[in-house]
Each structure stands twice: as structure tokens, then as C-alpha cells.
Amino acid sequence: MKIKPLNRIKAVLAEENKTNKWLAEILGKNVTTVSRWCTNENQPALETLIEIAKALNIDVRELIASTNTVTIVKSIDK
User: Fold this and answer.
1) In the chain, helix, strand, coil percent, each to 5?
2) Domain that holds residue 29
């Protein structure tokens, strides 16, 4: 069973044309640590997510993957 991503750090970095290395330098973290966040192997603390959002000048909610899934069912009348 595949684990669903809990954060969108990798996607947001790509959208902002930023790299893991850039984020690691801004936060004073190891590049390996940031890489693990980006692959959802590990999760940053809430305080760190807030720091990431500030560095990227975005709302922290943009870093969190939605757990809501919407299924649309179309009924076909015969």
C-alpha cells in the first residue's frame, strides 16, 4: 500500500523555482533533512512548516496535503 504524501514541500518548491539546497540554507538545516521532508519520508515540526511558509512567502496551508478526497459518481439512466 502506497503512503499518501502528508506535505507538499517538494511541489511548492518546484512552483516557486526553489531547491532543497536553497531551503536548507535558509532554515539552517541539513540538505538530507530537507530531502526527507520533500519525499515525505519524515515530516517537519509545525514550527518548521511555519518557517518554510515564511521563507517561501506563502500561507502555511499550502504546504499541507489535503486529506479530503471527493468522489464524483455519475448515474446513468437506462
Assistant:
1) 50, 5, 50
2) 9-63
